[in-house]
Amino acid sequence: MSPPAIRDGLPADLDTIDAIESACFEADRFARRNLARMLRGGRTQFLLAGSEGYLALCFRRGSSVARIYSLAVRERARGQGIAAALIEAARRRARTAGCRALRLEVRESNAAARSLYRRAGFRLRKRLEDYYEGGEAALQLEAVLDREDPAPARERPHS
Ligand SMILES: CC(C)(COP(=O)(O)OP(=O)(O)OC[C@H]1O[C@@H](n2cnc3c(N)ncnc32)[C@H](O)[C@@H]1OP(=O)(O)O)[C@@H](O)C(=O)NCCC(=O)NCCS
Fold this sequence. Notes:
Number of domains: 1
CATH superfamily: Gcn5-related N-acetyltransferase (GNAT)
Helix content: 25-40%
Order of helices and strands: EHHEEEHEHEE
Structural class: alpha+beta
Distance between the termini: 27 Å
Largest sheet: 7 strands, mixed
Mean pLDDT: 91
Bound molecules: coenzyme A
């Protein structure tokens, strides 16, 4: 089955995004009211893959670095390239907005996400001690955005 097409998330998608968020994260997840505010506001763009996954991409005024705030794919839809496709869409968005890099934080223990980001061209920038609830460290990763579209993540060799 081909992965669902990616589209912009709108305020009307609050239930869908909130359901993905609750299904995928136990701790440090966005409260529904924060999601609602971000969906209404102008600085965060939501990319949705059907009702299976989403990515939140945040732009800061005056900054050439865009942040991936959240990325999640429902368990039933994992392993089909949905997260990789969402990341590629975010890269294109950020590049189109004139950004030079994409940044994010990931739990040090999140092997699946770390492998996903490595495959998508993200590299370690710094380690942030005691970043999450409970004291776990975060790894801050960065991908430099080239002028040209990079090859799709799935066509890249493993690094
Ligand atoms: C991490 C997550 C987003 C991956 O979503 P996904 O749609 O299954 O990922 P994809 O199918 O696009 O995988 C792309 C690549 O990522 C890596 N990857 C994904 N899941 C992996 C896993 N469980 N173990 C190892 N590598 C993994 C692989 O390199 C994979 O490429 P391959 O299938 O060709 O080997 C998903 O597991 C998830 O939502 N987890 C819970 C929430 C979370 O941790 N979000 C990230 C917070 S920073």
